Amino acid sequence: MDFTTLTIDVLKMLSFAGSYGIGIILLTIIVRALMWPLGLSQQRSMRMMQMLQPKMKAIQERYKSNPQLMQQKMMEFYKEHKFNPMAGCFPLLIQMPIFILLYSTLMSPQFIQMAGDSQFLFINRLDATLRTSAGVSNNGTLGVSKYDTFMTGKTAKVYLKGVDEPLDNVKIDKPNKAIEVQGELNPGQPADFKVSLDSLNLKFSQLDQIEKAEISITDIQTKETEMLTFVRKDGILISSIPTKEMKTAFHFDVLLLIALFAVTMVLSQRAMMAMNKNVQQDPAQQAMQKSMNTFMPIMLTFTFVIIPIPAGVLLYLISSNIFQVIQTVIINKQLELEDAKKEAKISDADIANAKQIKEK
After folding, report:
1. Which of helix, strand or coil describes residue 6?
2. What does the CA dihedral 327, 328, 331, 335 come to, rounded to 10 degrees?
3. At what angle do helices 36-62 and 252-275 cross, to 10 degrees?
4. Are residues 205 and 141 in the same domain?
5. Is residue 305 part of a domain?
6. How far apart are CA 77 and CA 29, in angstroms?
7. How confident is the model at residue 48 (pLDDT cuts 50, 70, 90)?
8. Are 206 and 152 found together in one domain?
9. How many CB atoms lie within 10 A of CB 289?
10. Do 191 and 218 fall within a single domain?
11. Residue 18 domain flag
């Protein structure tokens, strides 16, 4: 199954008025809503872990000379309190494949050709990273750098000998590998490209009749797309196009997205810390958690500055963080109500079981 194509189809279905930015936000809401029960389990697990931390530490101190017995006692302790220490990791494990899939989708040839130049709010291109080169598509000149790589569109228009009507939408197998640069790529000089006939999904009899084909090519680095006419030469299709040198541009809209990601992540972590404000914590653990909450946003933000992350993926992460804040507040209120009901039941039981003192 082609998960990239499936993801693009889902985004297309969710993109009202042609806005893929809205599609990404709606996809985020749907994914996080489906994961709500896991989020509830995660916060309940974290809350219980904070409450049980003093007892867990006491077990560790008591059996520190016998690690095997300590592990056994800890497992008994988890079972007694119906506590799974790995429950908090499940939402993260589920989100990671979604993040990777969305990243690969927004960087894929299919998305670049279909909606790579899509705008949303202040975002100029959903596939743009912090530092990229963006050329002008379909102007007859290809903006390139020396080591750029290319891909074809998913389909081609093929002209056959003795046939008046061309074959439309002929599938191209493996678009990111179908095209090759002939010789060296020198900006400012014409670029020569070749496509193997075997890349076209046609019958052998049709392959022999091919005269030429119209195929779109995209520079993966600059995101520029040009439609080229390839003519047949022996067993390959060849084409040439003028080029010009393309310099790297800095995208301030992506920088703003990275800053928004940092802010929303800090808000998300503060919401999680507020959830445990009424729970007695170990001072060392509290200090470690505070340190992690400080450095984690800084580390991730710095990572996104260095590693090229598409604007659409950053939009997904920001939307996910905002959803996380709202989810944490709602679930925290729910857990507080559960704790209040438990305390009320315990108080009622204590009153019912209390011994009455008779007057003498």
Report:
1. helix
2. 180
3. 60
4. yes
5. yes
6. 37
7. low
8. yes
9. 17
10. yes
11. yes
What distance in Å separates the CA atoms of residue 251 and residue 254, rounded to the nearest whole number? 6
> Residue 178 is part of which domain span?
131-245
**Predicted confidence band of residue 220 (pLDDT cuts 50, 70, 90):** confident
Q: What percent of the chain has pLDDT over 90?
A: 9
Look at residue 229 in the predicted model and tell me its pLDDT. Answer: 93
Torsion of the alpha carbons at 283, 287, 289 and 292, rounded to the nearest 10: -170
Q: What is the pTM of this model?
A: 0.62
Two structure tokens written together for 67: 């690690």
Find where tokens 């194509």 sit. 5
DSSP string, 193-249: EEEEGGGB---HHHHHHEEEEEEEEEETTT--EEEEEEEEETTEEEEEE-EEE---E
Among 218, 245, 272, residue at a domain's last position: 245
By the 8 A CB rule, do 239 and 259 touch? no
Contacts for 137 with CB less than 8 Å, ≥ 6 apart: 117, 224, 225, 226
As for how many domains the chain has, the answer is 2
Q: CA dihedral in degrees (139, 145, 148, 152; nearest 10)?
A: 10
Q: Is residue 122 part of a domain?
A: no
| One domain for residues 226 and 283 | no
Angstrom distance (rounded) from CA 219 to CA 225: 7
Q: How far is C-alpha 40 from the geometric centre of its chain's CA atoms?
A: 22
For the chain, give the longest Cα–Cα distance.
120
Residue among 259, 248, 263, 252 nearest 302 (CA):
259
